[in-house]
Design goal:
Elements (H helix, E strand, L loop, with lengths): L5 E8 L3 H13 L3 E4 L8 H4 L20 H6 L9 H14 L6 E2 L4 E8 L5 E7 L4 E9 L21 E4 L13 E5 L3 H10 L5 E6 L5 E3 L7 H9 L1 H9 L19 H14 L2 H7 L8 H18 L3 H7 L10 E3 L2 H4 L5 E5 L5 E4 L3 E4 L4 E3 L2 E4 L8 H4 L2 E3 L6 H4 L18 E3 L5 E2 L3 H22 L1 E5 L1 H15 L25 E2 L3 H13 L5 E5 L1
Parallel strand pairs: 1-2, 1-6, 2-3, 4-17, 6-18, 7-16, 8-9, 8-16, 9-12, 10-11, 19-21
Antiparallel strand pairs: 4-5, 5-6, 13-14, 14-15, 20-22
Helix pairs in contact: 1-15, 15-17
Bound molecules: ligand NA7.
Ligand NA7 binds next to helix 5.
Length: 535
């Protein structure tokens, strides 16, 4: 329990990809920074999401920092994708390699942050933590994570369940599933990974499914020495391509429109990306317009539905697993998800036909009176994404205005990093950032934030987004999202996955390249849209 307030130049909140890079940058800038995290260690999302099968579906060579060139060449990875323990190990390695652990304080939850202005006009953030620690800092950088506040479903009787109940984002190592009757609610990216991993070890697995999802093969597998050597030889160029792409996933994004291809060519193109594997590759690698052209999207839907029919032997299960709506959620990939439903111990319940009426001590009771007895209930029900983590904190800017008030009409941030009325507050992975491979977006955002802070330091001024600039950025995000078919399906991407969620444009759909160009122009033009205020 700390007593005296700690005065620093900068405080970073969160020790995942974002917080680690920000802490590294503050160290390089010679500023006195510290990083706190509610968790007991480094990792952010990857600290918490320890469920079986947890894996990043970005190819291993691009799910890391691009700035440590030496590390890119020598740090080992063996497969196309990294599992959670490997990512955690990698992040810990980076922290130790760059001597960042000394700046980090774990088990420390930020409770509130308030901007305090003295009569002479100088201001600072006063950050209070649940531990009793108080920090006074010039710069507050929130690296809270886009997908980290668990979403608990509001199902009657959930608390009465006599077995074990666990949310995938709060998994602990003492949960054993071998030989158990397991039920799972949620079949998004997480649910698909868990189910595929645990099907062979549990006594029974029942997926209580509300909306079926389209998933394609991940094609996880070993990377040969020669493949790695090839990547190493052209790493610089590969990163350049990633930063010049739409999604930042390092896939070959197709420039071709669906309408320009013949039926045979369409089939061939879908089969090619199916064989290559990866959800983003399937969505963006065959044609350029699957997310905006309904005919193209329906073509992809039909292709995947046919694959489900070919894979799942039991027509009843296949029918429940086949999505009827558009392919317009975050694209999924798997290591044999549909295949597990050919096992006798795996079944799927269609919640649209028979909703859950309640969770009882024994298990799950459906509206038709059927009771599924369970030993373990897994909630793979996702996150209160993007602003969820911010809104549970109390962040108060100038004139006592809270961030919750600022975001009454939906979360906004100029370039995803700064809000008007909140001087020297910088968000990483905040609202209206690129919808992309996250480490790539994070690096772009952190580098922008650091460029702004360097400028503010050089001018001895505080800095905040201008209201008009923040509004214009929001408008740009709205315009870019207008054509998106993602609007037509409920998911976390537009905030329609949580109780009371209202559809909002939470991302910048212009892509990584556009964001980077905007960012570079901003740095080049002396930070238009940001106001530098006398300290
Ligand atoms: P998602 O993608 O938000 O998926 C959550 C799943 O939970 C989804 O299938 C939901 O069904 C289901 N869900 C949520 N609440 C309920 C209730 N009340 N009843 C039934 N089913 C429910 O979360 P993930 O963790 O899989 O993935 C989030 C991101 O994290 C992922 O995209 C990666 O980028 C990392 P629904 O579709 O809403 O009917």
């Amino acid at each position: 329990m700390a007593t005296d307030p700690i005065e620093l130049d900068a405080l970073v909140v969160g020790a995942g990809f974002s917080g680690i890079y920000a802490t590294y940058c503050f160290d390089r800038l010679g500023l006195d920074g510290r990083c706190i995290d509610i968790a007991g260690g480094v990792g952010g999302t990857w600290y918490w999401n320890r469920y079986p099968g947890a894996m990043s579906d970005t190819h291993s060579q691009f799910y890391r920092f691009s700035w440590d060139k030496e590390d890119l060449q020598i740090y080992p990875w063996t497969h196309h994708y990294l599992y959670q323990p490997e990512i955690l190990q990698y992040l810990n390695h980076i922290v130790d390699k760059h001597g960042l652990r000394g700046y980090m304080q774990f088990n420390t939850e930020m409770e509130s942050a308030g901007w305090e202005e003295k009569p002479d006009g100088t201001g600072r953030w006063r950050v209070k933590c649940k531990t009793g620690d108080v920090f006074f800092v010039r710069y507050l950088v929130t690296a809270l994570g886009l997908l980290s506040r668990p979403n608990y479903p509001d199902i009657p009787g959930l608390k009465t369940f006599a077995g074990e109940i666990v949310h995938t984002a709060q998994w602990t190592d003492d949960i054993h599933l071998e030989g158990k009757r397991v039920g799972i609610i949620g079949n998004g990216s997480t649910g698909v990974q868990v189910m595929t991993a645990i099907a062979p070890i549990v006594s029974s697995l029942t997926s209580f499914q509300r909306h079926p999802q389209y998933s394609v093969p991940s094609k996880q597998g070993p990377v040969s020495t020669s493949e790695r050597a090839e990547i190493n030889a052209q790493y610089e160029k590969l990163w350049e391509d990633v930063r010049s792409s739409l999604t930042g996933f390092g896939i070959q994004e197709s420039p071709r429109r669906y309408a320009d291809a013949s039926p045979e060519e369409r089939q061939k193109a879908f089969q090619r990306v199916w064989d290559q594997g990866n959800g983003f590759n399937f969505m963006f690698g065959a044609f350029c317009d699957l997310t905006v052209d309904e005919a193209a999207n329906l073509g992809a839907c039909e292709f995947i539905r046919t694959k489900i029919d070919e894979t799942v032997k039991d027509p009843r299960k296949a029918d429940i697993l086949k999505p009827k709506d558009l392919y317009a959620r975050r694209p999924l990939c798997d290591a044999g998800y549909y295949e597990i439903f050919n096992r006798d111990n795996v079944d799927v319940v269609d919640l649209q036909a028979t909703p859950i009426s309640s969770v009882t001590a024994q298990g799950i009771e459906l509206s038709d009176g059927t009771v599924h007895e369970l030993d373990v209930l897994i909630l793979a029900t996702g996150f209160d994404a993007v602003e969820g983590n911010y809104l549970r904190l109390s962040i108060t800017g100038r004139n006592d205005k809270t961030l919750a008030q600022h975001w009454e009409q939906g979360p906004t941030a100029y370039g995803a990093i700064a809000c008007s009325g909140f001087p020297n507050l910088f968000l990483i992975g905040g609202p209206q950032g690129p919808f992309s491979n996250l480490p790539v977006a994070i690096e772009l955002e952190v580098e922008l934030i650091m460029a702004i802070i360097e400028e503010a330091e050089a001018r001895s001024k505080d800095v905040e987004a201008e209201e008009a600039a923040e509004g214009a950025w929001g408008q740009r995000c709205e315009e870019l999202a207008k054509a998106s078919l993602f609007r037509k399906t409920p998911s976390w991407v537009f905030g329609v996955n949580v109780e009371g969620g209202v559809q909002r444009t939470k991302f910048f759909f212009g892509g990584v390249k556009e964001y980077r160009l905007w960012r570079d122009e901003l740095i080049g033009n002396g930070f238009e849209g940001l106001g530098f205020i006398d300290r």
